[in-house]
Automatic annotation (TrEMBL):
It comes from Ideonella paludis. InterPro entries: A/G_cyclase (IPR001054), Nucleotide_cyclase (IPR029787). Gene3D superfamilies: Nucleotide cyclase. The lineage of its organism: Bacteria, Pseudomonadati, Pseudomonadota, Betaproteobacteria, Burkholderiales. This is Adenylate/guanylate cyclase domain-containing protein. Residues 16-131 form the Guanylate cyclase domain.
Amino acid sequence: MDGLGNKGALVPVEGTIVFALVAAQVQTGQALSLLAAGIAAQRQLLSRAAALVQPPQGRVVERQGDGLLLLFADPHAALSWAQASQALCPAEPGHPTSATLALRIGAHHGQVLSDGSALFGHGVNLAARIAAVAGPGETLLSAPTQAQASPAWRALLEDLGPYYLKHFDEPQQLFKLGPSPALRMTGTA
């Protein structure tokens, strides 16, 4: 993957677009010091997840508030990153962020437009909408992503059926990535 294209000119780029959003529980009336600590934990989680992106197979396109927009060369790189990133949020009893922080990840493989610093088009919107319907700790994929994934990755996917997503007229077939400690450790799928 050679980046996002030339600065300024819109060029088509094919890859797996990934949105990762922090799902955080915030309690109404929470003290500002606790809210600040929660935001610091979110930033740390996103920084750790962004550090897992391995160029040239992947690239952090944008980091805003509680989310990341990423572009990967293929579903293998995207799904490897997703599993490693989900592992950053273990459920540890007694840990202050274990029950409150998780990632919601959405992925779509397809063609988008790039001006060298940002991504545009249907694929970006679809990845964002998929992430929005993912539950805390879930990685959901579009049908094109599932179709491009290797058989080893497809074996870990659960067909969730069609979903109606905001601003999409037709339902989108979604798949949920199941956990696999062996794949997370070896990255051999």
